[in-house]
UniProtKB/TrEMBL annotation:
Protein name per UniProt: Delta-aminolevulinic acid dehydratase
Reaction catalysis annotation: 2 5-aminolevulinate = porphobilinogen + 2 H2O + H(+)
Entries under SUPFAM superfamilies matching the protein: Aldolase
Subunit structure of this chain's protein: Homooctamer.
PROSITE patterns, A to Z: D_ALA_DEHYDRATASE (PS00169)
Pathway annotation: Porphyrin-containing compound metabolism; protoporphyrin-IX biosynthesis; coproporphyrinogen-III from 5-aminolevulinate: step 1/4
Organism, as annotated: Rhizobium halophytocola
UniProt superkingdom: Bacteria
GO MF, one example: porphobilinogen synthase activity
Enzyme class: lyase
Length: 336
């Protein structure tokens, strides 16, 4: 028999990587990561009023919705199998002040939305944020005193807000403010109020990023912001500091950890997953979403493929789930 060994066989030691790529069925059998509908959390924006579906110019395909329309969206998401929503309010400017006091109103916009969604679709998860930026007149995530975001007073306020959100039916509190100590104090506050079953998803590593711009338009804070958020968000250069931040959240009782933004920080997703025995989530933020939409609109890339590839990258980096504005689009695609 003629020896058909090739030089390639000799240099590779007869190990050819393409054997597991040659057909569709073998590629499917050896696939390491998959995106499923169970990986999706859908962030939505709530506005006052009724029968409102208001497109956000900076985020094509994303709308601000009144509570009644948000309930309809939640029902659609549940029907598609999306496990949970993350809700963000755009409240009236007249209700915003220096301390974000409207967040303490038990009947505020975000709490009414939670109650309405949980009443209509009790089997869908609702994740709420207790940062003050949608409620402040200066656009910061905390209380501003003489040019400084004060840590401890802010924490006292967000604990009270977290309890009110849990009272309204929130399943998970996700504090994005990045104040020191807030996870532990929120946990104690929830437990004291009888909300031991309400989880905390810590924005464990929220970076001072340029990718939040479209979101700030969505909640009408962009033009309000005085200064920047560098005194409380993590510097994009600092990976070890981000892990120290996450470690404190773990010690204080976080049930899961979030990395925000997502794609520019895949290394942080992986490091958190390797370091801690907790679920890790990534937030594919507004800037990430909008750049894919903008490039696709220019014909520079395939939107559907880019959408799915980026979500798959999160899974490969160890994420258990992704907060993404693409969620309903992805769910519909997977349903096919």
């Amino acid at each position: 028999m003629d020896d058909k060994t090739h030089g390639v066989d000799e240099v590779t030691g007869h190990r050819r990587m393409r054997r597991n790529r040659k057909t569709d069925w073998v590629r499917r059998l050896t696939l390491e990561n998959r995106v499923t509908v169970d990986d999706l959390i859908w962030p939505i924006f709530i506005v006052p009023g009724e029968n409102i579906v208001e497109p956000i110019a900076a985020m094509p395909g994303v709308n601000r919705m009144s509570i009644d329309k948000a309930v309809e969206a939640a029902r659609e998401a549940a029907d598609l199998g999306v496990p949970a929503l993350a809700t963000f309010p755009n409240i009236e400017m007249a209700l915003r002040d220096e301390t974000g006091s409207e967040i303490l109103n038990a009947n505020n916009l975000i709490n009414r939305a939670t109650a309405a969604i949980k009443k209509a679709i009790p089997n869908i998860g609702v994740i709420t944020d207790v940062a003050l930026d949608p409620f402040t007149s200066h656009g910061h995530d905390g209380i501003l005193r003489e040019g400084e975001i004060v840590n401890d007073e802010t924490v006292d306020q967000i604990v009270r807000a977290a309890i009110a959100q849990a009272d309204s039916g929130a399943d998970i509190i996700a504090p994005s403010d990045m104040m020191d100590g807030r996870i532990g104090v929120i946990r104690r506050g929830l437990d004291a109020a009888g909300h031991q079953s309400v989880g905390i998803m810590a924005y464990a590593t929220k970076f001072s990023s340029c990718f939040y711009g479209p979101y700030r338009e969505a909640i009408s804070t962009g033009g309000l912001l005085k200064g920047d958020k560098k005194t409380y968000y993590v510097d994009p250069a600092n990976g070890t500091e981000a892990l120290r931040d996450a470690a404190l959240d773990v010690e204080e009782g976080a049930d899961s950890l979030m990395v925000k933004p997502g794609l520019p920080y895949l290394d942080i997703c992986w490091r958190l997953k390797e370091a801690f025995s907790l679920p890790v989530f990534a937030y594919q933020v507004s800037g990430e979403y909008s750049q894919i939409k903008a490039a696709a609109a220019q014909g520079l890339l395939d939107e559907e493929r880019a959408m799915m590839e980026t979500l798959l990258c999160f899974k490969r980096a160890g994420c258990d789930g992704i907060l993404t504005y693409f969620a309903p689009q992805v769910a519909r695609l997977l349903a096919k």
